[in-house]
Amino acid sequence: MDLFNLEGKTALVTGGNGGIGLGMAKALAEAGAKLAIAGRDEKKNAAAAAELDAIAIKADLKDEKACRAAVDQAAQKLGRLDILVNNAGINVRKAPQDYTLEEWKLVLDTNLTSAFVASQAAYPHMKKAGGGKIVNIGSMMSIFGASFTTPYAASKGGIVQMTRAIACAWARDNIQVNAVLPGWIDTALTRGAREQVKGLHERVLARTPAGRWGEPNDLSGIAVFLCSKASDFITGTAIPVDGGYSVQG
User: Fold this and answer.
1) Please, are residues 227 and 25 in contact by the beta-carbon 8 Å criterion?
2) What is the model's pLDDT at position 165?
3) pLDDT of residue 249
4) Other beta carbons less than 10 A from residue 37's beta carbon
């Protein structure tokens, strides 16, 4: 359908070399977009770029200069920038009293500040192009609390509020800004959580009406929708993709 056709569009996916980011990048490529992916791991970048026929950009996105440079490089190499998916993220799991301030800053800078900086850097490119789409990746921790995710939850709650604020500011520039809140998706990040948090796997299955963990390709549809003209009148939203986890009583 033409509504979901991304041919002629260009996209940068941060953290697009694995997990949810790679799953979303694949969907955008299949819909016709030309891609750039940015991440710290040069080897993973190269593998993902080869799979997607994409441009790979090595960047430590929590560093402001490197983040801005990555966005500008993507726009230059792709010829324009229509879509930004802010997916880069990490987690450090501890009890609140055990975090160091350095760990707090590391998580916030990687998950939240990098998304803000990348969005700022993308704005002039999108305005020049006549509009654009920004998709910020939140989490179930944007909605719920958990004892072992204090900085992560703060960063993902911030993603939702940042999304709403920027959506209001840039709507008149024809830039739609939305957030996706993945549920428990089977990735390297959540496999680490299952190893560290006893009983997590069973609790997730018990609460999720779909009766399973999600997979990265479960984000494919929402990625294409929010990056296509099908969502031109949707902005400032935060959409769970969670198999019903967030609506289960």
Assistant:
1) no
2) 98
3) 67
4) 29
* C-beta separation of 151 from 92 below 8 A: yes
Asked if residue 173 lies in contact with residue 125, where contact means CB atoms within 8 angstroms, the answer is no
The amino acid at 27: A
Strand partners, 57: 38
- C-alpha distances in Å from residue 67, one per residue of 49, 50, 62, 89, 235: 19, 22, 7, 13, 24
**DSSP assignment of the chain, as one string?**
-GGG--TT-EEEEETTTSHHHHHHHHHHHHTT-EEEEEES-HHHHHHHHHHHT-EEEE--TTSHHHHHHHHHHHHHHHSS--EEEE---------GGG--HHHHHHHHIIIIIHHHHHHHHHHHHHHHHT-EEEEEE--GGGT---TT-HHHHHHHHHHHHHHHHHHHHHGGGTEEEEEEEE-SB-SHHHHHHHHHSTTHHHHHHHH-TT-S-B-GGGGHHHHHHHHSGGGTT--S-EEEESTTGGG--
The answer for residues whose C-beta is within 8 angstroms of residue 70's C-beta and 6 or more apart is 12, 14, 38, 57, 59, 61, 118
Residues annotated catalytic, as ranges: 152
The mean pLDDT values, 10 residues at a time, for the chain of 249 residues are: 95 96 97 97 96 96 98 98 97 96 98 98 98 97 93 98 98 98 86 81 90 93 98 98 90
